[in-house]
Write a structure and sequence with these properties.
With 570 residues, this protein is mainly alpha-helical. The chain is built from 25 helices and five strands. 55% of the residues lie in helices and 4% in strands. The strands form two sheets. It has a three-stranded antiparallel sheet. It has a two-stranded antiparallel ribbon with strand order 4-5.
Length: 570
Amino acid sequence: MFEFFHRWFGTGDIPRPKGRLPALLADYPPYPTPFPGYGQTLGLAECEENLRSFLSVREERLEIVGGLLREFGLDLRAGLAADDPRPFLASLDRWAREEWPAAWTTAFPRGYGAGLSSPKEGEHIVLAMLMDVAIAIGEIVVRKRPDYAWRLDLAGENSDMGSYRRVVVAKAPDGPGRSTIVLDYESVCIDTFDVIGRGSNYDVSGRRTTITSKVYVPPPHRGAPLGSMAKAALEGGDDPPDGYRSVLPPEEAPPEPPPGADGPHVYDKAEYHAHVLEHEYGFDPEEADEQAAVPTAFFFGWLASHSLLSRAHMKFARQEIAAYRERRVTAVELWSFFDRCLIDDMLSDEGNAFTHSYFQMGDEPGFYRDLADTLAKGLTSVNHVPYTFENQARMDAVVDRRYAQWWEKAQEDGTLLLPPWSRPTREARAGQVAAGARGIAVRTVCAWTVVAYLLTWAPVGPRLSGPAYAALCFGGAAVFLPLVFLLVRAFGTRGNKPRAAACAQSAALLAVGMLVYAWPAAAMLLDGRHGPQKGDGKFFVLGAALLAAGVWRAPKEARAGFWAGWPDRH
């Protein structure tokens, strides 16, 4: 019973997707590691013993994972022997995305490198499976590219990397001045499993996000296929031009994208900054992970509040964005819902155009310089700026000015070429802070009007007559006309059927409530009477109840969207 209430109120773990993998992992053999731990914390002799142990059990582990994959119709032996293993790698990726979410739990190791250093047994038996999948992917490369081999990553330039002194697939430098090519498939499998398993329901720290769904929701971004690094190695993607050793021809390139669409482009990820905070500024890993999201979260919050995310992402996270606009969650929490990534396919056409122009790092004119000038004076770096709603408001004001300047210049230069449905409304260009306040006022006034009429009708209504009585009835109903008009206008916008249905239901309730509320006055005029009659109070109570229901049914996003336009409009 307690678990039911936890799930109902969103405080407990969500039910995992159904699948056979958890049952199969119950009897999965542990992976033996003589010296578990993070590479930098182990001695070289201990790491070499881990490599010897790995090489001795490699074939056995391939048999184990091959048996598991056969349960799902995948033939590992055929994949290893195939002249072109890319179809097998694609099937392996599909299997991972379909089956892995069922095996993920909140007990999965958290934090930088925790999954790499945890024992691969017991409650973390899934790490043994991930290690075996990594062996299978690595073997595909090693068996077709003799210049690659299983070895320890002892490259000095990688001493601060998670792969250092761990077993990886690596290729020696091709010549003077060239780096060792390191393919850390275990790390890739662990990270992919965590992203797929968390979905959109948990952030990188394993905490529930603000998403209200009580079922598993896949992550908003697909990410790179599981075997993409192996595919690149087989196609010679990591080889220098003068040492090209491809064993497979590159797959046919996809069709040329339309003008202005160059494919996915990553503007920023929080993980890019976590390493800097930890190793250059001395943050502990957990603190570095949390603080790394703050700078770009300021900009992401501004984008979301100005409806510059793509229509699909605005719809996908409409409740989380509404919570942010109402300051119930921070921009950092909102960005965590999007896996703390800022990628071009997350943004609208206009959002991409502005972000491409303005979101610059370092000392170049742009967002990070504005952040440094506005909030980072006296601090070590922009990465040390704390997140507060006051700081968010200060940055919002700065970005508003930059956006207005960019918009005017783009219009003058004719460089902003958007499809007609992507062009923002005048209200959206002017910003939504004041608009949100007006939206709150509309709904609040309507709600308090219902309360006021319920409290005053009993002592005041029966004593009125003639024009005063008619004014009470028609005036009380007319208060809701603006809200009905706004709901009807919002109903006509594209891209969100649930919200459109809520608008229609709310408008219908309000319209019926207005008719019922005004009926006593209309009946008085039609009958030629000069005042109320017995029983009119029932119409007022019923009308007020319908009006209250209409106000309650109005979407919450109305607080920020009625006057500025709905998020999915552009």
